[in-house]
Predict the 3D structure of the following.
Amino acid sequence: ETIAFARHEAAAGLFAAVSMEPASVASRADELLNVVLGTLEVAHVRPGESVLADTAVPQSGVWVQGDEVSTSFLGLAARALETVVRTFGSDAPQSERARALIDVEVGFLQEALWGGSGGYRESWLATPSAAPACESPTVIGQLGAVYALLAAEGSPKIAEAIRSAILSFDTRFWDPSAEVYVGQLDRLGWCMTPLDLAYVVDGAARF
């Protein structure tokens, strides 16, 4: 739809007024990145737990963070923040802000979601249900935790956590008979979504 709109004659005037000079494009990209980082910092960080909530909604002029934190979303955010650091360099102000958000993610991951033996609980609720969660571990949930750890790679403690998480993931999710990672543990049948596959392929390229 976006490509079709850009090619339509009605949009010609809109795009003609936008400079495509490299310096102008870089400036707009920088402005957009600052908006995104600011939204994450202000809208998504739960102040009590110091972690990025999956969702946030504006109410009466202020941002209200959602009650859920999931490792799958933490992993996606970590990959994006890691890209910021890699693109702008570790000393850039944007990278410092991205690194601070990564540290927030990993601190919560290790303190609140660590499940032992390299595995992680895949979700956290600010107002937990009285009934215990019985969901089986998923490929996207466990790899999300691994991605967040990889984004914070550097300290010996994190390096050990990365090794443990990857070993746990490979041991539990790899099916040697089918030569494929299963989408979910403890199930007779399971499926792999495009996002699951993207997580696995990206992870395989990094491990």
User: Anything to note?
Assistant: The first strand starts at residue 45 and ends at 46. The CA atoms of residues 92 and 107 lie 22 Å apart. The two ends are 36 Å apart (CA to CA).
